[in-house]
Specification:
heterodimer, A: 68% helix, globular, B: alpha+beta, Aminopeptidase, 2 domains, 4 helices, NAA25_NatB_aux_su (chain A)
Chain lengths: 1000, 195
C-alpha cells in the first residue's frame, strides 16, 4: 500500500470509528481519487467541500495531498500548501489541529517538501492548543521520533507523563532522555541521567508503596516536574556534595537484593531499558573520573547525583544503607536474582552481562573469576558458542593482568601474569585441550583449538611465555580443519601476528601442501585452497614473475579440479571456484608489480570463465567488475552488476561497486550507469521511510530493547556517506549528459553543501568491501585497494565535489576553495577541477582589462590535455584513467558553461556596470575553453578508434592461457571481442559527446 | 568456533556474504525490522571469529556466516515457534551452524511455552530435509504448490516439518491427521497452513 493510500485509509477508518459518518461520506470520493492518483478529481472534490466550509480542516489536509501529488511539486503548489498549513494552524483557534489524522497528512506533505522546521512548528502549535488531547500528543511524540527530534520527544513525553498518568509515558520519556545521553563525554549527560534516574526511582518507589513494601521516597526528592525544569541539576549538585568520599567496598555479591525480591521488572524490555540507563550512568561516571585531574580510582570520585545509588530504587537494587557507585550498581543489577532471571531468558542480555562483568569488574569484586567459572561450566556442559570461549579467555587475562583495560584497546599490560592469573591460564588451556581432544564434539568443533590459539595470541601481545606456542598450535589447527572452506578465515587473526621467521617457515610448509601432486578429492581441494591462501598471506617477498607463475599454477589447479563438480546443478558452486579467485588475485598482484595490463586481461579471462561454470560465485563477479572498470569496459561491468541483482539495503552497501566515480562512464549512448545511480538513489527514500516508521513502531509497541538499535540503524542510513556520494555522482552525470535543471540544481547544491560542511564528521560509511575476500600478502595493499579506480572516495572527496558544484552552480554562495583537502584524496584531474571552480569565480569578479584570471582558469584545460597525452603514451596507465581525464575536462567545460549562463543573466538582471561588455568577455572566455576542450575530445576520439583495432592485440596478450584446452582460440577471441567492444563504445561515446558539446 | 548472538538492525549493512547467495532473498528494511521488533529472541546470527575488534551487542566484527529468523504464532495447542528463514553463506556450510541456530530457536520456543517448532522446506531440497530430520523434525504434511520457481519454472510443493517441544508430552503436534503414517502423503493447500 502506498503511503498516500495509508494516510487516507487511516483518515477514513478514524472518521468511521468516531461516528462522523457525514464527513466520512463527504471525503470518501476525494480519498478514492487520491488513492488512484487522480489529483485533479481530488482537488475538485476538495474545492466543492471547501466552498461550503472554508475551514474544513480535513478537506484542507486532503487538498495538500492532492497538490503534492504531481512530482516535482511546482513552486506555486508548494506555496499554496504552505498557505493551507498556516490557515489550519490559525483558523478557529487551531481547531483542526486536534485531529491526529489531519496532522499526519500535513506532516507527511510538508516533510516531502523538505519543510521539516515548519512541521515541527505545526506540532508545537497543535500540542500548545490542545494540551489535554492525548492522541495529538502521541502524534507529536511519534513525529519527533520519526524525524530524530529527540529533545522535543523528551519534552513532550514528560508533559504526557504528567497530564495523562500512564506508565508507558514514563518509559517513553526515560528512553527519549537516554537517547540524548549516549555521548558520555558530553557534560550535558549529567542532567539527562539525573532526570532519568529521578523518573525511574519515582516509578519504582510508587510501585513499592503500592505493594506495601517498606521504602521511603528518595530523600524527600522533588517531584519529576521540578526536575524537568532544572531541579534535577540542583539535586545533582547537592547529591554530589553528599556523595563525596571513598565508597564502601560493596561487591555485586553483597548487593542488597533480598529486600527487593517482591518487586520485579515487568518485561525483558523494561529490564533492558534500566540496564542501559545503568550502563550510561557507569560510563559517564568513568568518563568524568578520567577527565578529572587528581583521582586515580574511578570509584573514589563522586561527581553527581548519578554517582551513588542512595536514591536509586530498582527491583534489582533496593535502597539500603550501602552506597554503591554507578559501576557497582550496574554490576549489582546484573548479579541480582532479577538479573539471573532475565539473562537466562535471552542470549542478548547474557552477552551484555558478560561484557559488563569484563568491562566493569575487578579483582576485588571477584566478577572475572565468577564469570570464568560460569562460562567454563557452560563449555563443559556442551556449549560451543565462540562468545562463551572468548569471554572465558578474556576473564582469564583480566585476572592475569589484574585489569581488563588491555581487552578494551588500552595497551597496558602487566610484566608477568599474576599468580592467580597464571593458574587460570593453565586451567583454561587444560579445559580447551581436554575439550579438543576428548569431548564428543572435539573432532568437529573448531572453537576449542582456536581457544588455545587465542590464549597464545593474548600471551604474545603481552610478551608473556606462550605455553602453547602460536605457530605449532596454528599448524595443528590447520591439520585438523584444513578441509573446511573457512579454515583460512578462522586462522587469519592469528596469521596476522606471526613474526617474519614464523611466516617464512609457514610459507614453506603451506607451499609444500599446496603443491601436492596427483588428482585431488573434494576435501583435498579445500585443503590445497586453504594452504594456498595461507601461503599467499604469509609470503614475505614477491615479484611479478612469482605472481604470474602462481596465477598460472592456480589456473592449472582450477581446470584440474573442475571435473569434481561436473554433476552439480547450475545453482551450486563449484569446489574449484576458489582457484579461479586466487588466480585472479595473483594476476592482479602481477600487474601491481609489472604494470603490464595484459595481467589484468588474463585475470578477467579466468574470472569470466569461472562465472560461466559457477554463476553464483559472487566473489569472482565482484573482482571481475572491478577489473572491467579499470579497463574502461563499464557496460560489461554493469552487466555483471545486474546479475548480482542488489536489492533494498544493498543499494547502500553494494552500489559503490559500479557507481564509485561513475561519472567517468556516464557519457555513452546507453544510460546504464545513470539508471543505476537513479534507482539506487531512489531507494534511500523508501529505506529511510521504513527505518523511521519502524523506529516509531518500536516506541508504539513499547519494545524498549530495540529502540536504540533501530535509531542507530536509522542514523546510519540517513547519514550514509554513500547516499551523499550518489547524490553528487548523479548530479555530475546529469551535467555531463545535459539533463540538468539549473533551478533545481542550485537548491540541491545548497542543501548538499550545508550537509557536507556541517555534518561530514557524522557520516557513516556503510559500503561493503568485505564481500570480496583479500588473498594478497599481508604486506601488500588489499585486493580492493589494488583494483579501485583512484583514491578511495571518502568525505574529503565529497567535500571537494560539493565545493566544485557549489562554486560553479550556486554563484550566490560563498566561494569554497577547499585548500584544506589533501590532494592525495583526489586524482590529478579532480584536483585541477577543484582549482578551476575557484578560478572561474575570479574570472567573474575580474575587471574588463584583467585577463590573468582567465588565463589561470584556462590552464585547467591545458593541464587535462597534457594529462591525457601522458596517460596515452604510458603503457602502464589504465584505460579508465584516460577516460576520466577526458570526462573531467568535459565536466569542467559543462560547469563553466552553466556558470557563465547564470552569471550573464545575473549581470543583465542587476544592470551591473558594463554588463554587456562583461557578457561579451565571458562569451569569449567560454569559446576559448571550448576550443581547448575540443582538443581533449580529439585525443579521446583518436584513442577510441585505436581501441577498436585492439582485438588482435588483446588476443595476443592473453594467448599464454591457450595452454589450457578449455581456453581455446574461440574462447579467447570472443573474450577479446567483448572487452574491446565495451571499451571502444565507451571511448568513442565520450569522444563523440565532447565533439557534440563543443560544436557551438 | 561460531559466535552466536542476537541479530541487530545494523547487521543488515553486513549480511551480503549471506544474502548474495542464490537461495537467499533480500527484503525491504521493514521486513527485517518487523521480525526484530516482534520476535527479537528468535532472530539470531552467527559470526566468524576473524573479527578485528569488539563491537557492541556481542559482535566482534567478524564476517556474518548465517542467520535464522523466527516468530511465534497459533492458538491453544497450535501455539508454536515458526522458522521463517534460516540461511548459511556458501562458504560456511557443513559446519553445524544451522544446528546451532536451530538449537537456540528451540530453546527460545521452550521458554515461551510453545508446543512445537515448525518450518517449511522445498520438497526438492533433500539436503535441508535430511538436516532437519537429523535434528528431530518430521514431515508433517505436504503443502501443495507452496513455492514459486521450482524445477522447470513450475510451482513446487513444500513440506511442513515439525518437532514437538517438551510441553507437548504426548507428541500430539506431530500426530498425522486421519491416522496417516507418511506426512508426504498428507496434502493441504497453502491457505490451510496460516495461523
Amino acid at each position: 500500500m502506498s503511503i498516500v493510500a495509508q494516510l487516507v485509509n487511516n483518515l477514513l477508518v478514524s472518521k468511521k470509528l468516531s461516528g462522523a459518518l457525514v464527513e466520512y461520506r463527504a471525503i470518501q470520493p476525494i480519498c478514492s481519487a487520491l488513492e488512484v492518483a487522480s489529483y485533479k478529481t481530488a482537488l475538485l472534490g476538495c474545492a466543492k467541500l471547501l466552498k461550503k466550509q472554508p475551514d474544513h480542516a480535513t478537506a484542507l489536509a486532503l487538498k495538500t495531498l492532492a497538490l503534492a501529488g504531481p512530482r516535482p511539486v511546482s513552486s506555486a503548489a508548494q506555496q499554496e500548501i504552505v498557505t493551507i498549513v498556516e490557515s489550519v494552524k490559525n483558523q478557529a483557534s487551531g481547531a483542526g489541529l486536534a485531529d491526529p489524522e489531519v496532522l499526519q497528512i500535513l506532516a507527511w506533505v510538508m516533510g516531502g517538501l523538505g519543510r521539516g522546521e515548519e512541521t515541527l512548528a505545526l506540532f508545537a502549535k497543535a500540542t500548545e492548543k490542545h494540551p489535554k488531547n492525548e492522541t495529538v500528543s502521541i502524534e507529536a511524540f511519534l513525529h519527533y521520533v520519526r524525524v530524530g527530534e529527540r529533545r522535543s520527544a523528551q519534552q513532550i513525553s514528560m508533559r504526557m507523563q504528567r497530564n495523562f498518568k500512564n506508565e508507558k509515558y514514563t518509559w517513553w520519556s526515560v528512553m527519549a532522555t537516554l537517547l540524548q545521553a549516549r555521548d558520555v563525554s558530553d557534560p550535558s549527560t549529567d542532567i539527562l541521567l539525573a532526570l532519568a534516574e529521578r523518573q525511574i526511582s519515582d516509578h519504582y518507589s510508587q510501585q513499592r508503596k503500592a505493594a506495601g513494601l517498606d521504602v521511603a521516597t528518595p530523600n524527600g526528592a522533588p517531584a519529576i516536574e521540578g526536575a524537568a525544569e532544572g531541579g534535577a541539576q540542583s539535586q545533582a549538585d547537592a547529591a554530589s556534595e553528599k556523595g563525596k568520599g571513598k565508597e564502601s567496598a560493596v561487591s555485586a555479591d553483597s548487593a542488597p537484593v533480598a529486600s527487593g525480591a517482591a518487586l520485579e521488572f515487568d518485561s525483558a524490555h523494561e529490564y533492558f531499558l534500566i540496564t542501559r540507563f545503568l550502563e550510561l550512568r557507569a560510563l559517564r561516571h568513568e568518563a568524568k573520573a578520567a577527565s578529572a585531574t587528581a583521582p586515580a580510582n574511578a570509584d573514589s570520585v563522586a561527581v553527581s547525583s548519578t554517582s551513588t545509588t542512595s536514591q536509586l530504587v530498582l527491583p534489582s537494587i533496593t535502597p539500603s544503607s550501602a552506597s554503591l557507585t554507578p559501576r557497582q550498581a550496574f554490576l549489582a543489577h546484573f548479579a541480582s536474582k532479577e538479573g539471573d532471571k532475565w539473562c537466562a531468558g535471552g542470549l542478548g542480555l547474557e552477552i551484555w552481562r558478560r561484557e559488563t562483568e569484563l568491562r566493569f569488574g575487578s579483582i576485588e569484586g571477584g566478577e572475572w573469576v565468577k564469570s570464568w567459572e560460569r562460562l567454563s561450566k557452560s563449555l563443559e556442559d556442551g556449549e560451543t558458542n565462540w562468545h562463551t570461549m572468548l569471554y572465558l579467555i578474556r576473564c582469564t587475562f583480566a585476572v592475569a593482568d589484574r585489569s581488563s583495560k588491555a581487552l578494551f584497546g588500552v595497551e597496558e599490560f602487566s610484566a608477568q601474569p599474576s599468580e592467580e592469573g597464571a593458574e587460570l591460564i593453565s586451567k583454561s588451556r587444560a579445559l580447551f585441550r581436554g575439550l579438543a581432544d576428548n569431548s564428543p564434539k572435539g573432532k568437529v568443533e573448531r572453537g576449542f583449538l582456536l581457544g588455545l590459539l587465542e590464549i597464545a595470541r593474548e600471551s604474545r601481545r603481552r610478551k608473556w611465555e606462550e605455553a602453547d606456542p602460536l605457530l605449532p598450535t596454528l599448524e595443528e589447527y590447520f591439520e585438523r580443519f584444513s578441509t573446511k572452506m573457512c579454515c583460512f578465515d578462522d586462522l587469519l587473526p592469528y596469521l596476522q601476528v606471526l613474526n617474519d621467521s614464523e611466516r617464512t617457515s609457514l610459507f614453506e610448509k603451506m607451499t609444500t601442501i599446496a603443491e601436492v601432486a596427483g588428482d585431488l578429492s573434494i576435501t583435498a581441494v579445500y585443503r590445497v585452497i586453504n594452504a594456498s591462501k595461507v601461503a599467499r598471506f604469509v609470503a614475505t617477498v614477491s615479484d611479478a614473475a612469482t605472481q604470474l607463475a602462481a596465477a598460472e599454477g592456480f589456473v592449472k589447479r582450477y581446470f584440474q579440479t573442475l571435473p569434481l563438480g561436473k554433476g552439480l546443478p547450475p545453482t551450486d558452486l563449484q569446489p574449484a571456484d576458489d582457484f579461479a579467485l586466487l588466480a585472479g588475485q595473483a594476476f592482479v598482484a602481477a600487474w601491481q608489480y609489472s604494470r603490464d595490463r595484459s595481467c589484468l586481461e588474463r585475470a578477467l579471462v579466468v574470472l569470466e570463465y569461472g562465472l560461466q561454470r559457477s554463476k553464483h560465485k559472487y566473489q569472482i563477479r565482484i573482482l571481475a567488475i572491478n577489473i572491467l572498470r579499470l579497463l574502461g569496459a563499464s557496460s560489461s561491468a554493469i552487466a555483471h552488476f545486474r546479475i548480482l541483482n542488489p536489492k533494498a539495503i544493498q543499494n547502500d552497501t553494494l552500489s559503490h561497486l559500479v557507481l564509485n566515480r561513475a561519472a567517468t562512464f556516464a557519457v555513452t549512448q546507453d544510460a546504464a550507469v545513470l539508471e543505476e545511480a537513479v534507482s539506487a538513489s531512489k531507494w534511500y527514500k523508501t529505506g529511510e521511510h521504513e527505518a523511521a516508521e519502524m523506529a516509531v513502531r518500536v516506541f508504539s509497541y513499547h519494545n524498549y530493547s530495540k529502540i536504540e538499535e533501530f535509531i542507530v540503524f536509522q542514523d546510519r542510513l540517513t547519514r550514509s556517506l554513500n547516499k551523499y556520494l550518489l547524490q553528487i555522482e548523479s548530479m555530475r552525470m546529469r551535467v555531463l549528459r545535459g539533463l540538468l535543471d539549473p533551478a533545481l540544481t542550485t537548491e540541491a547544491v545548497g542543501q548538499l553543501t550545508y550537509t557536507v560542511e556541517n555534518r561530514t564528521t557524522e557520516l557513516f560509511d556503510n559500503r561493503d568491501y568485505k564481500t570480496l575476500p583479500n588473498h594478497q600478502a599481508k604486506n601488500e595493499p588489499s585486493i580492493w585497494e589494488q583494483t579501485q579506480m583512484g583514491p578511495k572516495t571518502q568525505t574529503p572527496w565529497l567535500r571537494a565535489f560539493t565545493a566544485i558544484y557549489s562554486n560553479f552552480l550556486n554563484l550566490k554562495a560563498d566561494l569554497v576553495e577547499g585548500t584544506d583537502i589533501n590532494a592525495s584524496e583526489l586524482t590529478p584531474s579532480e584536483a585541477a577541477l577543484l582549482k578551476l571552480s575557484s578560478d572561474v569565480r575570479a574570472v567573474f569578479a575580474a575587471a574588463l582589462d584583467d585577463s590573468e584570471p582567465e588565463q589561470n582558469a584556462l590552464a585547467f584545460f591545458k593541464i587535462q590535455t597534457t594529462l591525457i597525452e601522458q596517460a596515452l603514451e604510458d603503457s602502464g596507465r589504465l584505460p579508465w584513467e584516460v577516460l576520466q581525464i577526458a570526462e573531467i575536462a568535459l565536466e569542467g567545460y559543462c560547469l563553466l558553461d552553466l556558470a557563465i549562463e547564470q552569471r550573464t543573466i545575473e549581470l543583465a538582471e542587476t544592470k551591473a556596470q558594463d554588463h554587456a561588455k562583461h557578457s561579451k568577455r565571458l562569451r569569449n572566455f567560454r569559446i576559448a575553453a571550448r576550443d581547448l576542450t575540443r582538443t581533449v575530445g580529439a585525443r579521446v576520439t583518436a584513442h577510441g578508434k585505436k581501441v577498436a583495432k585492439e582485438r588482435p592485440k588483446t588476443v595476443t596478450s592473453v594467448s599464454s592461457l591457450k595452454q589450457f584446452p578449455l581456453l581455446d582460440d574461440d574462447h579467447l577471441l570472443n573474450f577479446s571481442h567483448a572487452l574491446v567492444e565495451s571499451r571502444r563504445a565507451m571511448a568513442e561515446g565520450l569522444g563523440a559527446a565532447i565533439h557534440r558539446r563543443c560544436i557551438k | 568456533m561460531s559466535l552466536l548472538r542476537p541479530f541487530s538492525a545494523s547487521d543488515l549493512f553486513d549480511f551480503n556474504a549471506i544474502n548474495l547467495d542464490v537461495w537467499t532473498e533480500t527484503y525491504g528494511v521493514s521486513y527485517y525490522l518487523t521480525y526484530l521488533s516482534n520476535w527479537p529472541d528468535l532472530f539470531s546470527v552467527v559470526e566468524s571469529a576473524g573479527g578485528e575488534g569488539r563491537i557492541t551487542g556481542g559482535g566482534e566484527g567478524g564476517g556474518l556466516m548465517g542467520y535464522v529468523m523466527g516468530k511465534t504464532e497459533g492458538q491453544g495447542q497450535e501455539w508454536h515457534a515458526h522458522v521463517s528463514a534460516i540461511t548459511v553463506s556458501p562458504g560456511h556450510r557443513r559446519l553445524g551452524l544451522a544446528s546451532l541456530m536451530m538449537d537456540l530457536l528451540e530453546k527460545v520456543g521452550e521458554g515461551v511455552h510453545s508446543w512445537f517448532v515448525d518450518l517449511f522446506v522445498r520438497e526438492s531440497n533433500d539436503l535441508a530435509i535430511g538436516l532437519y530430520e537429523s535434528l528431530g523434525y518430521i514431515i508433517y504434511r505436504r503443502v501443495k504448490d507452496y513455492y514459486g520457481g521450482g524445477p522447470k519454472g513450475k510451482d513446487e510443493d513444500g513440506f511442513d516439518m515439525r518437532k514437538p517441544l517438551s510441553r507437548d508430552r504426548h507428541q500430539t503436534s506431530i500426530r498425522l491427521p486421519g491416522g496417516a503414517t507418511d506426512g508426504r502423503k498428507v496434502v493441504v493447500r497453502p491457505e490451510d497452513v496460516y495461523f
